[in-house]
């Protein structure tokens, strides 16, 4: 998420790892999920994912996490594979997905950090604002903003010869979002195009963007995945219930679109959404999205 528009404070928490196995010849996925982090404004920061893709001798990483401790533990997880980290792919320009790049490249200097060109451009545009906010409200809790990914040459890179395809899907909770498709195992590492059991960030976009986000989810569905790793998820929740993940992401956006047109104010919108999704984690994001929606309404 990009938080240049509001202020908060995070503290590092232990991250959990869920491993998924495939047949021996297939790449292996390990999904690392950060624990919710307390906000000074109340509630928690959304649990964020990073994904390792391992072949017989090489490994790639999708997204980086953001607190110094979480990034260190992610590096430990990479080292524990005993394989060579070749590539770190960044799905989109939200700091919690890219800011760990510098620390990881310092630790694994033979790896390269890459993203699609629109993502690189947006990181360059947003980084100063992100750093200003996190310096003020996250002192000591966000790793150094020291690296911007390189532009990926084309849209394919490999792990031990296994093709990994970067797909520019467009709008998600931020513009210029991408996903990583692994055709050999019918998996999509979806970044913030998909959420899994977590309130979604709609506060930094508007109704037209929300429909485009639904269209982006449709593009992921068109890849016919059997596994979808969401950028934000409840730790331990399955990545293989693809219908629930993609339909849930669409349904949440659609419900917010409708309820935002009939709610009398932020509190009513929050209540309506909690009624639809009572078990979803991270209500702080919902409160922010509702507040921002009605601020836009007043300013229009």
UniProtKB/TrEMBL annotation:
CDD domains: metallo-hydrolase-like_MBL-fold (cd07739). Residues 47-232 form the Metallo-beta-lactamase domain. Coiled coil: none annotated. SUPFAM superfamilies: Metallo-hydrolase/oxidoreductase. Pfam families: Lactamase_B (PF00753). SMART domains: Lactamase_B. InterPro entries: Metallo-B-lactamas, NDM-1-like, RibonucZ/Hydroxyglut_hydro. PANTHER family: METALLO-BETA-LACTAMASE DOMAIN-CONTAINING (PTHR42951), METALLO-BETA-LACTAMASE SUPERFAMILY PROTEIN (PTHR42951:SF14). This is Metallo-beta-lactamase domain-containing protein.
């Amino acid at each position: 998420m990009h938080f240049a528009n509001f202020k908060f404070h995070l503290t590092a928490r232990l991250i959990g790892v869920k491993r998924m196995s495939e047949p021996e010849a297939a790449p292996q996925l390990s999904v690392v999920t950060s624990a919710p982090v307390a906000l000074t404004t109340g509630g928690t920061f959304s649990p964020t994912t990073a994904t390792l893709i391992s072949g017989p001798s090489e490994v790639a990483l999708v997204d980086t996490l953001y607190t110094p401790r979480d990034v260190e533990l992610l590096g430990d997880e990479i080292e524990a594979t005993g394989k060579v980290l070749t590539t770190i792919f960044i799905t989109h320009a939200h700091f919690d997905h890219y800011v760990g790049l510098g620390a990881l490249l310092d630790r694994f200097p033979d790896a390269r950090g890459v993203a699609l060109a629109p993502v690189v451009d947006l990181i360059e545009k947003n980084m100063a604002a992100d750093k200003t906010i996190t310096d003020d409200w996250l002192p000591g809790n966000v790793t150094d903003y020291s690296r911007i990914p390189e532009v990926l040459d084309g849209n394919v890179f490999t792990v031990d010869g296994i093709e990994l395809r970067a797909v520019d899907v467009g709008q998600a909770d931020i513009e210029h979002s991408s996903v990583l498709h692994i055709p050999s195992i019918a998996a999509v590492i979806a970044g913030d195009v998909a959420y899994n059991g977590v309130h979604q960030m709609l506060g930094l976009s508007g109704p037209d963007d929300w429909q485009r986000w639904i269209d982006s989810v449709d593009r992921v569905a068109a890849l016919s995945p059997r596994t979808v790793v969401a950028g934000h998820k409840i730790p331990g929740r399955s990545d293989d219930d693809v219908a629930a993940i993609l339909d849930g992401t669409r349904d949440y956006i659609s419900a917010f679109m409708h309820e935002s047109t009939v709610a009398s104010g932020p509190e009513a919108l929050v209540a309506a959404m909690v009624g639809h999704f009572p078990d979803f984690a991270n209500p702080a994001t919902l409160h922010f999205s509702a507040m921002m929606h009605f601020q836009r309404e007043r300013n229009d």
